Amino acid sequence: MKKWEIAVIPGDGIGKEVVPAALDVLKTVADVHGGISFSFTEFPWSCDYYMEHGKMMPDDGLETLRNFDAIFLGAVGNPKFVPDHISLWGLLLKIRREFEQVINIRPAKYFRGLSSPLTEPRDFDFIVVRENSEGEYSEVGGRIHRGEDEIAIQNAVFTRKGTERAMRYAFELARKRKRHVTSATKSNGIFHTMPFWDEVFADVKRDYPDVATASYHIDALAAFFVTRPHTFDVVVASNLFGDILTDLGGAIMGSIGIAPAANINVNGKYPSMFEPVHGSAPDIYGKGIANPIGQIWTAKLMLDHFGEEELGALLLQTIEDVTADGIKTPDLGGTATTKEVTEEICRRLRKRG
Amino acid sequence: MKKWEIAVIPGDGIGKEVVPAALDVLKTVADVHGGISFSFTEFPWSCDYYMEHGKMMPDDGLETLRNFDAIFLGAVGNPKFVPDHISLWGLLLKIRREFEQVINIRPAKYFRGLSSPLTEPRDFDFIVVRENSEGEYSEVGGRIHRGEDEIAIQNAVFTRKGTERAMRYAFELARKRKRHVTSATKSNGIFHTMPFWDEVFADVKRDYPDVATASYHIDALAAFFVTRPHTFDVVVASNLFGDILTDLGGAIMGSIGIAPAANINVNGKYPSMFEPVHGSAPDIYGKGIANPIGQIWTAKLMLDHFGEEELGALLLQTIEDVTADGIKTPDLGGTATTKEVTEEICRRLRKRG
Ligand SMILES: CC(C)[C@H](C(=O)O)[C@@H](O)C(=O)O
Ligand SMILES: CC(C)[C@H](C(=O)O)[C@@H](O)C(=O)O
To answer: Which PROSITE patterns would you find in this protein's record (chains A, B) (predicted)?
Structure first.
């Protein structure tokens, strides 16, 4: 029996509520199904940790994480006390970058039991493949002058390698799905990198004649996520565009609180990291009403990653059943607590056996 | 009686259909209301022009436009024949940049007679103030290496002056409205420029203690445009974020085809330019079914700019009445042609007198 060693970083805010919930679910999955077991090791790295130690994680933090099979993360950020660019670049973005988690996978689908804010959501079901290692998120740049003459420059850096890798991942994924890839571009406004993005897309698609494609500027595409989300299958996007599109994906599902994500290391050198799309939501932290579904669906992506796709599918179906039966947190229009939703999911997993 | 000299650039695709429609409406406004008149001078600058002359406009194009009171533009782009970054940077973006049209104003509101794709659009009514001169849209950057080692770099350049100017414009505008400004940021991911953006926002807001503020990361904000658009009044955003948010604004209204925009020169040195948010839509061009409302609402923004706010308000009300009465193009679920919508608007303007 394979025992998966998992590093757990609840992080900040509601991360500290929804991560334990998702661990309960994973433990239940392991209890019920003989073939799998987990060992969880928790790390308190977070903004609280920063306030005590002046850094988001210890100097050997990455070294420590490196030997785990996966990292299971809640949310990072507490902007009242630590500026976001410090907390994120000191932990979340650092791990994504240093562990070469070059692909970020973010599914969105019409979810039974949720009220989508769209009048006609149809049965949408797409996955955004987000380039996760470069692009607009870069430390390259800086400032010059002070006061009224100050200038800040941000370099977006797109490599052929990184761009092509994300696109190939998207095409491969599309082959397991509906064989359609949409490219998120902005070659009409972003002068240097987006025409480059388009060229690489044209090159890569030549290798996948069996996959249909479309290409839209990010402004139009964001609008299409609202007006016709059911027309997408796999969407490949840069780091920033993927970030924006996936929050929109969460919104049209009915809550950002349910959107899951996986940061995938594709070369096998480092662990992958699983973390939901939502943030730490300091405003609702501590009330016991945080929606655990994003984190639990994220656990499903981790199961898939471990090759346990059947268990993953079962878990997703259970979450949807529970939601469809109205057992949901206030953000979804329900009255259940984090704990009640979690227990109901575990109960049904046990019952199903 | 003031005679306004207007340079008209229909541009490409449906621009050539909706601009004449909007001119008919403006002529009717002038006919009916004694105090105003227009002189229109048309320029054929477009992708067609490019294919004939190898450039989007003549070398002295800007010199020619410079002495007009305003530029009224349709849409630019025909990517099948001219790459977008050529056509746009050769005309639309060039005019915005060279004529120091540093602010882009884009209203969005719940529009009577439209079916918003949102189940609960409420009575939303906001204006996005988009920084229009710098930021992510820059010619600074380039490429190095070829083939598999190729790298493309895009510099986003934010100056204190440009950033502050957009923000002050937003705060001044908010004072004439509901006294609320939302800042679109991404200081948790975009390392250099967005923390700078936040600092400038904090500085500027100190001068407007009577205006309430909020600040959201672009990913969350895009989602909020879908989940609670009625909570926004004025939104200030960078060039790219403003671009994305305003297409979303169009989407939640029920059609990108109705969203208007104004590119404002604030120092009085050059004309301002009025152009709708939508593009040239080559796929529907020539069918006579393009929605003229974006262009006509844009004409209303031009009237406002000329100080004719009352006429502007009357025009907007007339458009809404016609839409509410079901006289609308297919993109809005109607069966009317461009011409029928336009004629009905003119007829009612005349009747109202
Ligand atoms: C055509 C394109 C360059 C332009 C932009 O991105 O500014 C358009 O999308 C707009 O919003 O006016
Ligand atoms: C917290 C932030 C840096 C992060 C991002 O922008 O990548 C988040 O929005 C996400 O999508 O995971």
So the answer is: IDH_IMDH
